[in-house]
Amino acid sequence: MGADRVFAYGAAAGLLGDLLLGDPRRGHPVAAFGRAAAAVERVLWRDDRGRGALHTAVCVGGTVALGGLAARLVRSSPAASAALTGVATWAVVGGTSLAREARTIGRALEAGDVEAARARLPHLCGRDPQALDADGIARAVVESVAENTSDAVVGALVWGAVAGVPGLLGFRAVNTLDAMVGHKSPRHRRYGWASARLDDVAGWPGARLTAVLAALAGPDPRGAVRAWRADAAKHPSPNAGPVEASFAGALGVRLGGTLSYGGRVEHRPVLGGGGRAVAVSDIDRAVRLSRRVAWLALGACVLARSVMKGRAS
Predict the structure, then answer these.
(1) Is 255:278 a contact under the CB 8 Å cutoff?
(2) pLDDT 10s digits, 233-255
(3) Residue 58 and residue 134: Cα distance in Å, rounded?
(4) For the chain, which terminal residue's Cβ has fewer other Cβ atoms within 10 angstroms, N or C?
(5) Nearest Cα to Cα of residue 195 among 28, 69, 44, 23
(6) CA angle 116, 277, 273 (to 5 degrees)
(7) CA–CA distance, 172 with 275 (Å, rounded to integer)
(8) How confident is the model at residue 266 (pLDDT cuts 50, 70, 90)?
(9) What is the DSSP string of 165-188?
(10) pLDDT tens, 18-41?
């Protein structure tokens, strides 16, 4: 069994495992990484970019090395290699948890229980829920589904296709570090700079693939392409912009606008300006689109891995 088939079988099994099982309630490997990264931060932290870069190198480099060692130990057995790839894929993707959280909030909004939706929103994104009404919560959920389709699923598959198990684990380490220290809080403005920039680089290919597949799989491909071309560059994030704009155009809705994070208000440009305001029913539409994009991404990554192997041989 070649490396391309190992990745194909393992990644498909991992994505199916996520669909059937979701994330474990206890002992999730990503949570364990987060605790380890927090411990490293307690030792290294200074208000300094160099210390932050060292933190990033230790955490990401250690994770990639661990993945490489594990892959090396089983490389003589194609079945074991595929199993390791499956476990790694299941550990790093989070499409099912994303869908469950989004739909839980959607059901609360459908029942008219805005307070329950506000209480659940922090499980999905970092918005200030008290600053949002029902429509604002629905918009935040759709935006989070779009962005996390790239961050929690497609980006990992892309790097898995490029570098196998080390790529899968390394991407998740980069993305998790960005969530932990890459934001512009006073403590992390300088210390988290390296993690934020590395996340921009690592997320670039997955974000573009997500935007392309959202356009192909969505109900309005032309609208997705129009919104991507017109609005993506207006977003402050180089990766969230194409993804959210493509989702907005595909679904025919408007995303962006005024947001609140931890008391800090941001006025972001509107994405998909020709669309209508987000409705609660759009949450389920966004989740279904996210699912389609995930499986199409698997197919695209398996094909790309096969092409790379063919050119190398």
Answers:
(1) yes
(2) 999 899 999 999 999 999 999 99
(3) 42
(4) C
(5) 44
(6) 140
(7) 33
(8) low
(9) HHHHHHHHHHHHHHHHH-S--TTT
(10) 999 888 777 789 999 999 999 999
